[in-house]
UniProtKB/TrEMBL annotation:
Keywords: Cell membrane, Membrane, Transmembrane, Transmembrane helix, Transport. Belongs to the binding-protein-dependent transport system permease family. Residues 159-343 form the ABC transmembrane type-1 domain. It comes from the Bacteria. It is a multi-pass membrane protein. It is found in: Cell membrane. Signal peptide: none annotated. InterPro entries: MetI-like, MetI-like_sf. SUPFAM superfamilies: MetI-like. This is ABC transporter permease. It comes from Pandoraea terrae. Pfam families: BPD_transp_1.
Length: 354
């Protein structure tokens, strides 16, 4: 009997030992999986994930999810719970891959155009001597740069004249174009009467009007400013009308049903929705205004970059001609960039207000 009882206890002891071994293996596996999951989730080892938090039993005291919980394996194995084998260093987390891609894409987009310009200038610089082209016909970029620095005072004097003509003409186009666009949008009769006339004026080449403007307005600033105004007026009107018409009528009906007045509907809904189109027309208009001012200076002027370019052509000074073209381009680029900065600020503030 005693031997039978001892044998039974021995078998039970072996079974308990086997059970403890299995539990230890399960605990080791659980610790490995826990550490792997937590490291992939980017959480510290001691944190309790939301999916692992147990719901409190009825009548049980509340226990914080971050508080350490008793491990049932401790009572069976007599050992503390296993710590994760895969640990993550503390401190600032590395930049996520998606953020890195966004930063890289933003850098590439910002540097793509300058890199292309630099590449074209390098090709231009080495192609002139490589193909034996005379610098009298095609000067190198370095020659143009040297001439720009040498004659900077002369170029800047004429640049100021052209810049003022562009600014005044473009400003006049804004002041008159946007109100006319509003009248076209709100009055169908005005649209039927004025819109065909605007389209007809736009089809006329502005260079053909330049001699007539000089005849009627003289040799001063007036013909150049008016030509810059005339060539940039139509894009501003069209873009404003399109922006006002692009708004969903459901939003207008909703605002009216809530008691909004016509002024509130315009300034709170119509204008913010039309701003991207309006600024698109302004960007096109500012580029065309530069062209209009220079065309007016070609016909009749005593100052300005167009006048200086004609003087360079008459003297067969190709390098000065290219330097003048560079200054004309710089006027358009600077004004376009400034308008883009204003667009980002105004459109962002309007969208935030809405």
């Amino acid at each position: 009997m005693r031997r039978g009882a001892e044998g039974e206890r021995a078998r039970r002891g072996d079974a308990d030992a086997a059970l403890v071994s299995r539990i230890r293996l399960l605990a080791l596996w659980d610790g490995c999986m826990y550490g792997l999951v937590m490291s992939m989730a980017g959480m510290p080892p001691g944190a309790v994930p939301l999916f692992a938090a147990e719901s409190p039993r009825p009548g049980a005291p509340y226990e914080s999810p971050q508080a350490p919980r008793s491990n049932t394996l401790t009572h069976l194995t007599g050992e503390p719970p296993m710590t994760p084998l895969i640990d993550r260093p503390t401190g600032d987390l590395p930049v996520p891959a998606i953020k890195y891609r966004r930063v890289r894409r933003a850098v590439l987009e910002a540097t793509a155009a300058p890199a292309l310009v630099v590449l074209l200038l390098i090709v231009w610089q080495f192609s002139v001597p490589l193909f034996g082209i005379s610098t009298f016909v095609l000067p190198t970029p370095l020659d143009v740069l040297k001439r720009t620095v040498t004659d900077y005072a002369l170029l800047w004097t004429h640049t100021q004249v052209t810049l003022l003509e562009v600014v005044f003409g473009f400003g006049a186009a804004i002041v008159t174009g946007i109100p006319i666009a509003l009248a076209i949008f709100y009055s169908r009769l005005f649209e039927k009467a004025v819109y065909p006339v605007l389209v007809g004026l736009q089809t006329i080449p502005k260079a053909a009007l330049a001699p007539l403007l000089v005849l009627y307005l003289g040799y001063g600033w007036a013909p150049k400013v008016f030509l810059a105004f005339l060539i940039s007026f139509f894009p501003i009107v069209i873009s404003t009308v399109v922006g006002l018409q692009a708004l969903d009528k459901g939003m207008i009906n909703l605002a009216r049903s809530m008691g909004a007045s016509e002024w509130q509907t315009f300034f709170k809904i119509r204008l913010p929705a039309a701003l991207p189109n309006i600024f698109g027309g302004l960007k096109v208009g500012i580029s065309l205004a530069v062209i209009g001012a220079v065309i007016g200076e070609y016909v009749a002027a005593e100052k300005g970059l167009g006048y200086l370019q004609l003087q360079a052509n008459s003297q067969f000074d190709t390098t000065l001609n290219f330097a003048t073209v560079v200054m004309i381009s710089m006027i358009g680029i600077v004004l376009y960039v400034l308008l883009g900065i204003v667009e980002r600020r105004v459109v962002y503030q309007k969208e935030s207000a809405v």
